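Predict the 3D structure for this chain.
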Amino acid sequence: MVLADIISVDPFGRRLEPGPGASFVVLVSFLISYLAIRTSARLTRSVSWWPGGVETEGGVHLHHLV
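Done. Predicted structure below.
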């Protein structure tokens, strides 16, 4: 007997099958991602301790160079 037969890890269950459940998972994923990126961008500009606020000696932010 394989361990996968004993322990079943399926966090989304039937929600990823086509239909409204899958649409809900996509919507929630998009919203969480959007909010995380916007929060990171805000913190990069407003506080000095947030990673991503790296500047060159001339004052250009690293993400503007990439």
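The radius of gyration is 20 Å.
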